[in-house]
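Table S2 (text version). Query chain:
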Amino acid sequence: MRCHEAEERLNLAALIREIGRGPDGSRDLPEQAAFELYLAMLDGQVPEFELGAILIALRVKGEGPEELLGFHRALKERVAGLDLPSAAASPVVLPSYNGARHQANLTPLLALLLARFGVPVLIHGAADAHGRVSTADVLSALGIAPCRDLAEAQARLEDALVAYVSVDLLSPGLAALLATRKRIGLRSSSHSLAKLIDPFQDLALRVVSVSHPDYLERMGRFLDATGAHALLLRGTEGEPFANPKRRPRIEHYRDGEAEVLFEAEGGPIPALPNLPSAIDAASTADWISQVLTGHVPLPLPLVHQLACCLYGAGSAATMAEAKALAALRGVGFAFR
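Corresponding structure-token output:
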């Protein structure tokens, strides 16, 4: 369908009036309207001028619960699927769209640690890191190249247990919407939706990280309403790993029930952990290699997150067992 046909069918001007009257006058779209709008956006059927207006309006207003449900339902129809790997544990999906600006990007470390426990890990992200150090950069420095297609990703999940794919392989339409950040200078709803992707037909454990406290509540409501299986935390610069200096609150969602696995640490930091001396990809990869070989201790917040992932992926029947596994099998930390 051409853009003008979609414009007439959806009445884009009326939709923009609903969401574009500012924080006090705008109204949320119903779920079905949000579904139809975002499907058209993913399919490239919304003209550029109207698309920019919609993105800015949603940025100012914020996505309402019904809108997020509708947008996500549309995205599920435009995300390529992957088969479950043969591993006993459920796959873990790590969305990586922020990159490192102030702290080293340790998303690859979390993935490689999980693989040591036999947990398949799919990492997906955008090709453009906007000047930050991306997960793809660090993985490349570790000798792990991005997958060229989904068939290669499927094979790596079976053989090496860790695969990185660019979002354009999973959803070209979403990749195009994410790329609008370069033109309008702002993140959009699509950056939140990218963190909710599960190519395994809702059978994986998603690690959903947010950058701002208000999104913890918003994402929590969504995960609860959809019965999603996920861990929710405030990530490090938006990346899905726990801040190695201070553990965030980590919640586990499954079938509409939420469980706090770890509360956020408070008070002064007792001692700074041994972290990479610089945040560039080579320095980060070298530090990760030293952790994996046991020459550098893994910061305790990451031990805690590893245990949460093992529990959520089914590698441990209880959190007590998951804590013991994370502490004893080459990590060398005791829990308190």
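Notes on Table S2: Residues 332-336 have pLDDT under 50 and may be disordered. The chain has two domains: 3-76, 92-328.
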